[in-house]
Design a protein that fits this description.
About 55% of the residues lie in helices and about 20% in strands. The chain has helices spanning about 1-45, 60-80, 85-95, 95-110, 175-185, 185-195, 200-215; strands spanning about 45-50, 115-125, 130, 135, 140-145, 155-160. It has a 4-stranded mixed β-sheet with strand order 2-5-1-6, with helices on both faces.
Amino acid sequence: MKTLLSIICSKKVKYSFFLIILLCIYILVCAISYVDAVSTDIENSVFRLHVIANSNTDEDQNLKYIVRDNLIEYMNVLVKDFSSKEEVINIVNSHKDDFYSIAKQTILNNGYNYDVNIEIGNFDFPTKNYGDISLPAGYYDALRVKIGEAKGENWWCVMFPPLCFVNISSGVVPEESKEYMKNELSDEEYNLISKKDSGSIQFKFKLIEWLQNTNILTAKK
């Protein structure tokens, strides 16, 4: 009788353990599906600028910021009348030579002879804060500017909607930029990048970060 009872209990334990595993798999699949959908919507809504310094010396880092400022000044004139990411990418792509010329001339004017490599593509970005907007880690379309050997620290901002600030820590995201993102994203997706006071919002944002950083989600392009 005891043997029969232990067999029954053993089967119940195994069955319960099996159900727990299935539940965990289901939760993981749902989490991955949720993060994949949210990440795709957020990534598809922005076009970023990425400037990489020649090295981490003070001189090269300072040069990176000067190049950045001149590129942003030109960019703000170039794309100010466009209202979609696709339009901005098209106009930037057709003016790649101008971006190269501005960066190269800036470098020469500051006494350096580094070359510049201009790329438009889909690149991996870490989590980044822009004033009161936070973008999770992921793969984003971007204009990448590589100065010289491009072995120094990076600088990032968002070209569209315009979130590029010279001083990010004190920047306030323009209302027009927020309106664009509100129109492109669901309410929950917008809350994820703009609000951190809710516990559930914080948890979901951290979930997106974790799945992206552990490479469970891979590049989509």
